[in-house]
Amino acid sequence: MQVRILRRALLALPLALSFAVPAVAQVVVKHTKGEVTLAARPQRVAVFDPASLDTLHALGVDAVKGVFNTRMPPGLAKYAGAEYAKVGSLHEPDLEALNKLKPDLIIVGGRSSAKYDGVKGLAPTIDMTVDNKDFLASSIANARTLGRIFGKEAQAEALIGKLNASLAAIRPQAAGAGKALFVLTSGARMSAYGPGSRFGILHDGYGFVPAQPNLKVSSHGQAASFEFILQANPDWLFVLDRDAAIGRDGSAARQLLDNALVKQTSAARKNQVVFVNASNWYLVGSGLGALQANVDQAAAALKGAKP
Question: Which residue of 131, 135, 238, 301 is surrounded by the most CB atoms within 10 Å?
Answer without folding.
Answer: 238
